[in-house]
Amino acid sequence: MLKTAEMRWFYTGKVPENVQHWFEKELPGDNLRSRDTREDVYLWIPQCEFLGVKHRESRLEIKWRQQALGKWPLSDRIVGNAEIWIKWLCVDPESDTMLPTNVMTQPSWIGVQKQRQQRIYTYPPEQQVQPAPADEWLSSGGGVELTQLRVANQDWWTLGIEVFGEGRDLLDILQAIATIVTASYPGETMTAQHSFGYPAWLAKL
Predict the structure, then answer these.
(1) What is the β-pairing status of strands 51-56 and 36-43?
(2) Is-contact 41 205, C-beta < 8 A?
(3) How far apart are CA 65 and CA 56, in angstroms?
(4) R_g over Cα of the chain
(5) What are phi and psi of 174, to 5 degrees?
(6) Which of 16, 42, 163, 187 is buried deepest, with most CB atoms within 10 A?
(7) Domains and CATH numbers, the chain
(8) Among residues of the chain, what percentage have pLDDT more than 70?
(9) Secondary element (H or E) of residue 18
(10) CA–CA dist 79, 124 (Å, integer)
(11) Which three-class secondary structure state does DSSP give residue 15?
């Protein structure tokens, strides 16, 4: 089980060029991870924003929104909705998939193609936010991701911040990392109206 604090925004279309350049070239650190291309398959749960179920590669992931904390201003131009999530991972060591094909082909499962780029930051107690090497184990920190999405013949993109830290104030970590990362954001104003988790986004499709 993993408990996280998250803030995410969704927009239609392709990732703007200036946002792509900012993420690759201007964010602190040289720890940009290789682009991850995959398809995640989500269980569509109508009118449900607090539960997410998806099949990713060989595992099943279940996420429960424990708290919706409302609007969280990072600057005059950037406001998001902060949320606390709990995630469980399910793996079958005797199979390369958790779901049989005849289940995943049902209309209630939605395939989402993703091209994701990610940066990882660490936030040790009583220290400042720092870029983290890709292979370093972290006790507290978070990931910042920029992802191009394709679902139901529609293009979307999302910017997300997800943090963790056992025994730490997750909102303190979220505020610290999000403030550093978004300080140089060059895109249009990001508002709480576009800020929600994957379950809420899927419910709007």
Answers:
(1) antiparallel
(2) no
(3) 19
(4) 17
(5) -60, -45
(6) 163
(7) 2-204 (2.40.320)
(8) 96
(9) helix 17-21
(10) 25
(11) coil
- For position 173, what pLDDT does the model report? 94
Q: Tell me what pLDDT residue 200 has.
A: 96
Question: CA 7, CA 83: separation in Å to the nearest integer?
Answer: 7
Beta strands in 58-170 (DSSP E): 59-73, 79-91, 109-122, 130-131, 140-151, 154-165
Partners of 4 in beta bridges: 85
The pLDDT tens digits of the residues spanning 14-69 come to 999 999 999 999 999 888 888 999 999 999 998 899 999 998 888 899 999 999 99
Residues in the chain: 205
* Rounded CA separation 169/174 (Å): 9
In the prediction, which pLDDT does 133 show? 81
Segment (H or E) for 198:
helix 198-204
> Do 133 and 51 form a contact (C-beta atoms < 8 A)?
no
- Strands 2-12 vs 36-43: parallel, antiparallel or unpaired: unpaired
pLDDT of amino acid 22: 97
Is the per-residue pLDDT at 74 higher than 70? Answer: yes
With bands split at pLDDT 50, 70 and 90, how would you rate the model's confidence at 138? confident
Q: How far apart are CA 54 and CA 31, in angstroms?
A: 27
Using a 10 angstrom Cβ sphere, with 0-12 exposed, 13-18 middle and 19 or more buried, the burial of residue 26 is exposed
Using CA atoms, how far apart are residues 6 and 163, in angstroms rounded to an integer?
Answer: 6
